[in-house]
Design brief:
heterodimer; A: about 325 residues; mainly alpha; MetI-like fold; two-stranded antiparallel ribbon; 14 helices; B: about 290 residues; alpha/beta; two-stranded parallel sheet; 11 helices; 11 strands; about 40% helix; globular
Chain lengths: ~325, ~290
C-alpha cells in the first residue's frame, strides 16, 4: 500500500519534471536554431557579400541617380538590406505605445488600488485584464479600419496608417501589462505605510502619490520594462496598422515598418539559405536578445521588490 | 481502439463513395481521394475558392482547399511539394521551374485559367481619371510626389502596394517600374482587399490589384506610350488594348494525380469560366488569340 503510493509519487514527480524540462529545452532549441540560421552572415561567403553587419547599418545607393540612403529592398535586382529604417520604425511604434500605455496604466492602477471603492475595483481590474485577452489581430483590424479613420479625420494626417495610429493600438495591448504589474506592486505595499502616513495627517492623495507609489516604484518600473519587451516583439497590430513602409523618418505621422512585421511578411516566400533569409533571422535574433534581456531584467526587479516587501511585513 | 478507427474510416469512405455513385458514377474515384490543396496568389484566392466551392458541389466527395499568401508563397510551396497546385498572377520564372522540376521529378505544367486587368485604383473623390504608364512609374518610384503634378489637387500622393511575395507586386514592378525599385514610402499591405479598403478611405491614396476586387474605388484608365487612355474592361482586355492585361495561372507538375488534372480541366469548361466572370475576372475565351 505505502509502496504503491510512493511509486505513484515518484512517477508523478517524474512526469512534472519532464514537463518542466521540455519547456526549458524548447527555449534553448529555438535559441540555437535562430542563431544557427543567422550564422551565414558571418561565415558563408555568398551570403556575406550581400548581407553583413556593415550593410545592415550603412547607407546604400537605391538607384543610379539617387543619393545614398538607408533602404530596405531585399528582393530588388540589387538587394539592399539596411536595417536602420526598420529599427527606427520599431522604436517609433514602441515609444508611442509606451507613452500611451505607461501613464494611463499607472494612473489606472493607482486609482483601483488606492481610491476606488472595493466594488468598483472588482469591475475595473478584470476589465483591464480582459484587454490582454483580445487577440492582437483584432486590435490590428480595429486600428486599420476604425482608429486610422478617426485619427485622420481628427488631425488631418497625410498617411492614415502611421506611427501614432500603430502606437496607440499597440498601447492598448500594453495597457494590461503596465496595469496588472503596477497594481500588484501597489497592493503589495504594506498597510503600515499607509497608516503611518494617515497618522501624520496626509490626505489620501498625498499618501498614494508620495508614499505608496514611491514604495511600489520598482514594480512600476518593471511593468514599463516588460511592456517594452512586449512592444518590441508585437507583430500583428503593427503589420496591420503601421503601413509597412520602410522609410527612415523620425516623424510620427509617417508610416512605419517594424522588425517583427518584416519577418512576418517576408519569411513566407524567402528562399531558404539566401542572404535575405539569414537577414530575417538576424532580425529575429535581435528581437530575441532584446526581449530576453528586458524580460529578465523586469522579472529580476519584480522579484527583488517582492523580497523586500515580504521583509517589511515581517 | 485502432480497429475502431479503421472501421470508422472504412465506413466513412464507403458512405462517401456510395453517395458519389448515386449522383454521378464518374466521380466515385475522386470520392476516396485525398484533398486537393491549392495555394498562391492573393489576387486569385477569391477565384480559386469560388471554383472549389462549385467543383465540390458538382463532384461529391472531392475536397479542394484553397489558400492565399501570394504567388511567391504558392510557387515556393509547389517546389517544396506541400501543395498540389499553385495559383500565380505572374508567370513562373525559369529558375523556379527548374527548381520545381528537380524537386517534383516532372515538368511543370502552366495553364492560364482567367484574364485579369491589373487595376490602378484611386479614391472616388480623386479628380484624376487617367494616368500614363510613365506617370505611374514616376509615382511609384517616388519621383512624382504630389497629385498636382499629374492633374490632381495639391496633395501628397499616398501609395499602397503589396508585399514582395505577391505576384501582383512583381508584375507591377516588371511592367510599370521596368524592374526599378518601389519607393520606400509605398505602404505594403496584406492582400488586395486591404489595398482597396485603404484607398476607399484615403482620398489621396493610390493602389493596384486584380480588377475583381474593385469596389468603392475608381479604376483609372491607363495609357501607354502615346496611345489614348483605356479603361479596364472585358473589351479592352479582349483586344489587349488595356496596357496592364495579364493572365492568371495554375501551375502543377506533369505527374500530378488525377484529382489535380480533373480540377484543372473542369476549370476550363464553360461552366467554370462563367464563374470566372461572376467573380470579376475575364474568361479565357474573351481574348482573341
Amino acid at each position: 500500500m505505502t509502496r504503491g503510493r510512493l511509486a505513484r509519487n515518484a512517477i508523478m514527480t517524474g512526469v512534472f519534471s519532464v514537463a518542466g524540462w521540455v519547456a526549458i529545452v524548447f527555449i534553448f532549441l529555438i535559441f540555437i536554431f535562430t542563431f544557427k540560421e543567422t550564422l551565414p552572415i558571418f561565415t558563408d561567403p555568398e551570403v556575406k557579400k550581400e548581407a553583413n553587419l556593415e550593410a545592415f547599418f550603412t547607407k546604400a545607393q537605391p538607384g543610379p541617380t539617387l543619393a545614398e540612403r538607408y533602404v530596405w529592398q531585399p528582393t530588388s535586382e540589387v538587394p539592399k538590406v539596411s536595417l536602420i529604417p526598420i529599427i527606427l520604425g520599431t522604436l517609433k511604434a514602441t515609444i508611442v505605445g509606451l507613452l500611451f500605455a505607461c501613464p494611463i496604466g499607472v494612473a489606472a492602477a493607482l486609482f483601483s488600488s488606492e481610491f476606488a471603492p472595493p466594488k468598483l475595483r472588482e469591475v475595473i481590474k478584470p476589465c483591464i485584464e480582459l484587454l490582454a485577452g483580445i487577440p492582437s489581430v483584432v486590435m490590428g483590424f480595429f486600428a486599420l479600419i476604425v482608429l486610422a479613420t478617426w485619427l485622420q479625420k481628427a488631425f488631418g494626417f497625410v498617411y492614415r496608417l502611421n506611427a501614432i495610429n500603430a502606437g496607440l493600438a499597440l498601447g492598448f495591448a500594453l495597457l494590461p501589462i503596465v496595469y496588472t504589474i503596477s497594481e500588484d506592486g501597489l497592493a503589495a505595499v504594506p498597510r503600515a505605510h499607509r497608516e503611518a502616513s494617515y497618522a501624520l495627517g496626509a490626505t489620501r492623495f498625498q499618501t498614494a502619490w508620495r508614499v505608496v507609489m514611491p514604495a511600489a516604484a520598482p514594480a512600476i518600473f518593471a511593468s514599463f520594462v516588460l511592456a517594452f519587451g512586449r512592444a518590441i516583439g508585437e507583430t500583428m497590430i503593427l503589420l496591420m496598422a503601421g503601413g509597412n513602409a520602410a522609410i527612415t523618418s523620425f516623424s510620427l505621422t509617417d508610416p512605419l515598418r517594424t522588425l517583427s512585421a518584416t519577418i512576418a511578411a517576408e519569411m513566407g516566400e524567402v528562399v531558404v539559405g539566401s542572404a535575405h533569409y539569414a537577414t530575417l533571422f538576424f532580425m529575429g535574433t535581435l528581437l530575441f536578445v532584446v526581449t530576453f534581456i528586458s524580460n529578465t531584467f523586469g522579472q529580476m526587479v519584480i522579484r527583488g521588490m517582492q523580497r523586500r516587501m515580504q521583509g517589511a511585513k515581517a | 481502439m485502432n480497429t475502431k478507427k479503421v472501421f470508422v474510416l472504412v465506413a466513412v469512405s464507403l458512405a462517401l463513395a456510395c453517395g458519389g455513385e448515386k449522383r454521378d458514377g464518374a466521380t466515385a474515384t475522386s470520392a476516396r481521394s485525398k484533398p486537393l490543396t491549392i495555394k498562391g496568389s492573393d489576387t486569385m484566392v477569391i477565384l480559386g475558392q469560388r471554383l472549389a466551392e462549385e467543383y465540390m458541389a458538382k463532384h461529391p466527395g472531392a475536397v479542394v482547399q484553397v489558400n492565399g499568401g501570394g504567388s511567391g508563397v504558392g510557387i515556393a510551396a509547389l517546389i517544396n511539394g506541400t501543395v498540389d497546385l499553385a495559383q500565380a498572377s505572374r508567370p513562373m520564372k525559369d529558375e523556379e521551374k527548374a527548381q520545381a522540376k528537380k524537386a517534383r521529378g516532372a515538368d511543370i505544367v502552366e495553364q492560364a485559367v482567367a484574364l485579369d486587368a491589373l487595376g490602378v485604383f484611386v479614391n472616388d473623390a480623386n479628380p484624376v481619371k487617367s494616368l500614363s504608364i510613365a506617370q505611374l512609374k514616376d509615382i511609384f518610384l517616388g519621383k512624382t510626389k504630389n497629385w498636382s503634378e499629374v492633374g490632381g489637387p495639391n496633395a501628397r500622393i499616398v501609395m499602397y502596394g503589396r508585399e514582395s511575395s505577391s505576384g501582383t507586386h512583381d508584375y507591377f514592378r516588371e511592367h510599370v517600374l521596368e524592374k526599378g525599385d518601389f519607393a520606400p514610402s509605398v505602404q505594403t499591405l496584406q492582400g488586395t482587399a486591404a489595398i482597396i479598403n485603404a484607398v476607399a478611405r484615403d482620398k489621396n491614396g493610390i493602389g493596384y490589384g486584380g480588377i475583381a476586387y474593385a469596389k468603392d474605388v475608381r479604376p483609372l484608365s491607363i495609357s501607354k506610350d502615346n496611345a489614348p487612355a483605356i479603361a479596364p474592361s472585358e473589351a479592352s482586355v479582349a483586344d489587349n488594348s488595356y496596357p496592364l492585361s495579364r493572365k492568371l495561372f495554375f501551375y502543377y507538375p506533369a505527374n500530378a494525380p488525377e484529382r489535380v488534372t480533373q480540377f484543372v480541366q473542369w476549370s476550363l469548361t464553360a461552366e467554370a469560366q462563367n464563374l470566372v466572370k461572376e467573380v470579376g475576372y475575364f474568361p479565357l475565351a474573351t481574348q482573341k488569340q
